[in-house]
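Q: What does the assembled structure look like for these inputs?
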Amino acid sequence: GAVVSQHPSRVICKSGTSVKIECRSLDFQATTMFWYRQFPKQSLMLMATSNEGSKATYEQGVEKDKFLINHASLTLSTLTVTSAHPEDSSFYICSARAGVGNQPQHFGDGTRLSIL
Amino acid sequence: ILNVEQSPQSLHVQEGDSTNFTCSFPSSNFYALHWYRWETAKSPEALFVMTLNGDEKKKGRISATLNTKEGYSYLYIKGSQPEDSATYLCAFGAGSTLTFGKGTMLLVSP
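A:
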């Protein structure tokens, strides 16, 4: 149980393109979904937290107009990287949590984004 | 900025060896400590969520201990197997979000 599906797994596109990444909880309802970014040899860095039906909470230094998050249902959250540039190239991974607090997060497989 | 440190950065052991690694975290405002196993080309898998000082949790050959007063957690693997090869992440919870360490990369050779 607790499967999270993330698509696409790999994106290569030109600078200026907007890229949408989907994160779905397949067998449970996710009260909260999280979006992380990981640069090489660095830790997973939280970008934003989203609760179904409400605006995402962005971490300091993460531009909300650049990284649009929509959490329209209890099983789907999307991250759109708008007008992506080479510096946005990174590994993006989502997680979902049922309930609150000390429940574990369940992760997708991640998306490798390369902007040319 | 919360500081979560994991050591060693990487570890190479032989099959059958027992091993352990460390996660250190802030000792104030503690909420929970999570351990995850992340195998290459897969998603991170939750191992343990620990909340109480002195807590010890076990899952098969893997166990973890927690000391919230001094801010550290140990993860132990008894009799390592090649399938244990993965990056082991710890994450400090101070509320509803997690701050991750960089992980310990374990390689178990047959």
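Chain B has a mean pLDDT of 95.
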